[in-house]
Each structure stands twice: as C-alpha cells, then as structure tokens.
TrEMBL record:
Region of interest (Disordered), ranges: 1-21
PANTHER family on file: ACHAETE-SCUTE TRANSCRIPTION FACTOR-RELATED (PTHR13935), BHLH DOMAIN-CONTAINING PROTEIN (PTHR13935:SF118)
Pfam families per the UniProt record, alphabetical: HLH (PF00010)
Record localization: Nucleus
Residues in BHLH domain copies: 12-62
Annotated organism of origin: Hibiscus sabdariffa
Low complexity composition bias: residue spans: 1-13
Name of this chain's protein: BHLH domain-containing protein
Parts forming coiled coils: 52-86
Origin: domain of life: Eukaryota
Keywords, ordered alphabetically: Coiled coil, Nucleus, Transcription, Transcription regulation
Amino acid sequence: MDPAAGAAGSSSSRINRTSLERERRTRFRQLFSRLYSLLPPQAAQMSTQQVLERATVYVNQLRNRVEELKQMNSRLEEESKERRGQLSSTFPFLSIIDLDSTLEVNLITGRNGKFQLSHILKILMEEGAQIVTAAADHSAGDTIIYSIHCQPICSRIGIATSRVHERLENWFLEAN
C-alpha cells in the first residue's frame, strides 16, 4: 500500500467526519432555536441547560392543562346532559389555569347569571395582571362563556395566582 494514498484516504475521511460534525451541529442549532421559539417569552437569555429544563417544565404544564381541560369537558358534558330538560340552564363553572408566564381564566354561566366580565377584569388588574385578551361568547345557547388571557404587568413580580383564584372564587360565590 502506498503511504501517500493512505495519508490521502485518512485526510479524506477526516474531512468527511468534520463535515458530518458541522452538519450535526448546524442541525442541532436549528432544532434548539425552534424549541426556544416554542417556549413562552423569556426576560433574559438562557443557557442550553436552562432552555431544556424550561422546555421540560413547559411540556409538563401543557400536559397538565390538557388533562384539566379534558376533565372540564367531561364535567360540562355531564352537566349539559343533566340540564337538557330545563329551560334556564345555569351552571356556573370557574377555571383558572396558570401557564407560568400567562394566566387563563374561564367562566361558564347561564344568561341569567349575575356575572359581568368587567368584575373579573377589575379583580385581575388589581392583582397585577395585564389583560391580553378578554371575550364573552353568547353563541352557546343559554350559556355565556367568558375567556380571559392575561400576563403580569411586571414580569419580575408576576401574578399571585393563588390570590387571584381566592378572590375570584369569593366573588363567584357571592354573585351566585
């Protein structure tokens, strides 16, 4: 075997490995960038480890949210079946979901309920929430579905979810 040919072959395989490693790193950066873009906005840059830990926490939060929504759907279906024969169906239901950087509040009630979106918004704003979206859907027959998405006015302070939950439940019970 010619030593020059062996050196050329070794050099060629080294270049091939280098090229493959460069492509692997590029692909990793692209996938990492995509993962980072799927996470809620962050106030500061994070290390790779922090992003991966954050992604793990976020996926678990989403998994829990899906489970909560499935349970809510089951409860609503059961209540709907129970109340089909009644003319004035009122089934107040309050759900507060903390998604770490955002808060989602859902209230489902009958048209004759004493709930007003402005009362919910006032409580949220008093607790340091900035309303991103708020809507009341009247198209669901004799029910009204309120849906509010908010985020903290100051990201360092955040929203005291337990306090918001307590205040909304107290208001909810008083109004009912």
